[in-house]
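Each field is set out underneath.
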Amino acid sequence: MIKKCISGLLISLLFSTHLLAQQAFIEGADYQLINPPVKTSNPDKVVVTEMFWYGCPHCFTFESYVEKWSANLPNGIVFEQTPSVLNPRWGDHARTYYTLKQMGELGKVHRKLFDAIHVERQRLNHFEDIARFVATQGVDEAKFRETYNSFPVDSLFRKNLKIEQKYGHRGVPSVIVNGKYLTSGGMTGSNQRLIQVINFLANKELNQ
């Protein structure tokens, strides 16, 4: 009898916790629907996309949360970062991201670029400054310059410019879950809670 009571209590607690988790995140406050949904890069997975800008201090702070969160994703959920061009001045940074990705050097330079701007206070706002910086990180500068101005990088830049316009976000970092939901630290109140909302929405999509 006691075992049955304990078992029933545990089930009730789990159910209550699930309901509280659902009630804790409010549509229109912690996240909003994207209507119509935007096609993702991988229809067979739940895609979580962070829109960022290297020059954004909030993106720099969120990066450590992103690194920890994305290190152990469950099967079915994939994470991608996309450089935002909400402001035309961010274009050089966006093209830099795509260039490094095309070259296979993104993993080596991505975090160092953030650190150079926000920790070391280097002014890396324009192409020439960025080209000299990546060279100090062991990247072939001549190849970087060539790839930066290549058709594949230009195509990626233009493609994601069109996609970003469909999200409806007004700042960075912003996170899009499976092309259906938009959330951000400004909406959730903190980076820690932002991660919780991302998990909630991603699991919601995963379990459909």
